[in-house]
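User: quick one, fold this
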Amino acid sequence: MNKAELIKVLAEKTNHLGNVLTVIHDIKIPMNNGSGPAVSSHRVGIRTCSDYSPFGVELDGRTVSSGYRYGFQGSEKDNETKGSGNSYSTEFRQLDSRLGRWLSIDLLNHKYPYYSPYQYVHNSPISVIDLFGLGDPLEVMKIRRNKASNLQGAKARNSGTRAHQGFDLYAAPGTSAKAVKNAVVYDVSYSSSYGKTVTLEITDAKGIKSYAFYAHLSAVTVSKNQKVDEGDEIGLTGQTGNAKGQPAEDAHLHFELRSSPNPGLGMSGRLNPNEVLDTKFYSQDPEAINQATVGVLKEQKDGSVIKINLDGSEKIIKNKTNLQNLGQIRFDSSLAREAKDVNGQKYLIVHDLKSQKDFGVVRKPDGSYDFYKKPQK
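Assistant:
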């Protein structure tokens, strides 16, 4: 039996970016201080140690490797391609650490039109880590019964007379529920209406806090004050609380985004869940009085939009990833229509996916957009 076969435990020592700096194993190496034949102490065994350039190249003279698979930001090395530490594989793409660039386009590039689709962590690798792009609470995202009344809205329920505070996402009981962002578990609780719940506290780059709320869980796999990363399991979906006894096709995860952890009844303190989700949902007709008779629009991670009717039939209505955000509106710039005002000034008419209304915008020299301002009389 060789030394490698004796190793049962490997422990990673990482820094604030998740870079694997040292890997130690559980074999105790005997030491003698020279005062006699007996073993005076033991030292830990080091499997590998590494140091990195900002974008992940292993530094010469500061790296000792013995075949450990993981390195920069905890990603798996792809040494067979370009040599040790020069290429890393993630779940969705490959990073060339010498170029500091992805080798394929970011699926979420439509959210960040001001960045190159190949850029890595906004060119700030010393302070920023790459997220997996798994900002959805479920692997398969579907609104319960494809009804717009199961979206968030002040008049979503009972023919426009009752609010619905979040999204009801279809999920068979026992489906893994995921953290939508890096967060801290603020609360784990139970109530007669929501059943088993988990609340995550999310802090954005500006220090603003919001709270992701998961309800009707059958099991909770995290504890209060625990740190979780985007994509980590926080529990299993179920039918607890007032969802108990619902038909199988109504099994769901109730998901809310809140500005405070305990906002009470009504829409006070509720934010639009689309603000943190990669897969977004909208009503096909936001102005309809009875949203239970209206299907949904599903905007996928690649920017395409699918129209889903109540009977489950689907039709792709947007293929391109030219979606833009401006204030509270979201539009496809490829569908913009040119117009002129009374002074001959050109502007664009765009259609907001959220409100289904048209707005006037102007395209600035840097490629971004601003609202069109009518000339004063």
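User: anything notable?
Assistant: Residues 152 and 165 are 5 Å apart (CA to CA).
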